[in-house]
């Protein structure tokens, strides 16, 4: 069953048509990758799903409900969370304070306690650094914090926007192992990535976005073997 369904989505910034009539779905329990070069419309698509950017036309359905016109805070309460591109942690706030921001839309003390416990068991290094300002963490630790913060509200769908961006190759491996681990916890994942090989290696299916349109889609294994994908993303 489709947990997330995007139907004929159009998004514009003034005269610029960033997303041009794309349709895709993410089924419950899957990891689905949205691939594309810089400027292909990946982040715009995800920001529209989460309600940060408004669609010009088209529909977004989540868990059987049309969420196209809902504001972000209501979408989050429905069970979608995002770990944003560039991590976007609050540098002067401590690790614990950053985690609290993951449940700001809820007034549920139990959710905060359970979320913090889950974050610290998933990322022991964050427990060690709990009182430290987030700005003092390494890039890899900040990525862990961004993911942990997104998981605080127990989302049904986690959107991860460029989680490997700017990280050392050894840390990138850890990030993709983490994606598999989170998915094994029963969380559906939509992964937005430029690192095609790693992303398709952990996902069930993928969509390739080119200048605001879906150019290719299919099973991740088939996409990895596709000549077009190889030439564009895997260095031939």
Explain what the structure shows.
It is a single chain. The protein has 236 residues and is α/β, with parallel strands linked by helices. Helix content is 38%, strand content 28%. The strands form two sheets. A six-stranded mixed sheet has the order 6-7-8-3-9-10, sandwiched between helices. Helix 3 runs parallel beside helix 6 (139-151) and helix 4 (109-122) packs antiparallel against helix 6. It is globular.
TL;DR of this structure?
It contains ten helices and ten strands. It has helices at residues 42-49, 72-78, 95-101, 109-122, 124-128, 139-151, 169-184, 196-202, 220-225, 227-233; strands at residues 2-13, 16-27, 31-35, 57-62, 65-66, 80-83, 157-161, 188-193, 205-210, 213-219. Strand 7 (157-161), helix 7 and strand 8 (188-193) form a beta-alpha-beta unit.
Regarding quaternary structure, how should these chains be classified?
Answer: single chain
Strand portion = 25-35%
The structural class is alpha/beta
Strand count: 10
Q: From the alpha carbons, calculate the radius of gyration and give it in angstroms.
A: 17 Å
Query: What characterizes the major β-sheet?
Result: 6 strands, mixed
Distance from N terminus to C terminus (CA atoms, Å) equals 35 Å
Name the strands of the widest sheet in spatial order. 6-7-8-3-9-10
Q: Helical region count?
A: 10
Poorly predicted runs are none
Shape: globular
Q: If you average the pLDDT, what whole number results?
A: 92
Helical content stands at 25-40%
Q: What is the string of SSEs from the N terminus onward?
A: EEEHEEHEHHHHEHEHEEHH
């Amino acid at each position: 069953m489709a947990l997330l369904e995007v139907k004929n989505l159009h998004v514009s910034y003034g005269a610029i048509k960033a997303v041009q009539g794309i349709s895709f779905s993410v089924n419950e329990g899957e990891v689905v990758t949205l691939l594309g070069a810089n400027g292909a419309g990946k982040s715009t698509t995800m920001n529209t799903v989460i309600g940060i950017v408004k669609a010009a036309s088209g529909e977004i359905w989540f868990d059987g409900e049309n969420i196209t016109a809902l504001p972000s805070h209501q979408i989050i309460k429905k069970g979608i969370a995002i770990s944003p591109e560039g991590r976007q942690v609050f540098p002067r706030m401590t690790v614990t304070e950053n985690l609290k921001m993951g449940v700001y839309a809820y007034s549920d003390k139990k959710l905060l306690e359970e979320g913090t416990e889950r974050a610290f068991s998933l990322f022991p290094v964050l427990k060690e650094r709990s009182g430290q300002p987030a700005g003092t963490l390494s890039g890899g630790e900040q990525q862990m914090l961004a993911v942990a913060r997104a998981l605080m509200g127990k989302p049904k769908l986690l959107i991860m926007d460029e989680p490997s961006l700017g990280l050392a190759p050894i840390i990138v491996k850890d990030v993709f192992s983490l994606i598999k681990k989170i998915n094994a916890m029963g969380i559906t994942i939509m992964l937005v990535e430029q690192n095609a090989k790693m992303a398709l290696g952990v996902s069930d299916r993928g969509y390739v976005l080119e200048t605001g349109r879906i150019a290719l889609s299919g099973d991740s294994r088939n996409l990895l073997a596709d000549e077009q994908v190889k030439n564009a993303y895997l260095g031939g």
